[in-house]
Model the fold of this input.
Amino acid sequence: MMALNLNNILILAPLAGYTDLPFRSVVKEFGADLTVSEMISSHALAFKNKRTEKMLQKAPNESPYSVQVSGSTPQIMVQAIERLNLEKDIDIIDFNCGCPAPKVSHHGNGSGLLKNLPHLVAMLKLIREYSKTPYTSVKVRIGFDKKIPLEIAHALNDAPVDFVVVHGRTKIDGYKKECIDYDSIALMKKILNKPLVANGEIDCPQKAKEVLQHTGADGLMIGRAALAMPWIFAMIKECLHMDFVQEVGLRYQIALKHLEKMVEFYGQRGVIIYRKNLHHYSKGLEGASEFRDKVNRVDNQEEMCCLIEDFFKNFLR
Done:
């Protein structure tokens, strides 16, 4: 791969159950500079879980490509990294230290590592020592049950990572919109001796501009906003603004293309997996609730295509 350019980089955040290969390939077509796999457990990698093998695959247009791993047991992590070393197409290994889900954090993984910063740094050193990928990174929150951005930043200065992604909430904040704290991200940026990417509540070009200016971040990571608007990366880069008909037309085109990619990757099972994506593509449109009810009963690609066409064309006449 080419040298990683972090200046104003736009990254698709890893989202469990959503950022699989088909979705990432769609987002790449709309200007995402870097895509990241769904979070993969180090245990699943170490013990060669079959589902994990499919999660590692990348699309032809995914370059650079990052795989995110979670875990806190050194011996298991070494085995996981050795498994990843067998893959030729991984450019970055990202270490998850931000997941707030209880089933992850309560076992000392994800955001649970923020309660033990020396161990967090030791794990990052271990990953760098054993990994053959050109780059490594880490994603953190600004604390576990209280904000400790300065302590986290100072600790990460001792970690051999190429960049840091900071989500501007603590673990206990979850995803509460009112809890987002860009001031803490700005504090971390002043201390860190490596590039910082800001994450959290970035949902339009204006918000992206404000967050970059406020935090001084080198780039942005966008997650949930991309589920309904995979084109948000192009909007930010080109300061695009669309009227209602243009946006609905784009939703319609992407909905059909995404469905096709899902079936190519998963087979007919992809139609069922795709239902949740259509919930996002129809969000905010009149009749969306009824449309979702119909979608949830369909398991055939041809029938799903007809539903999509009938729903979206109502707004394009």
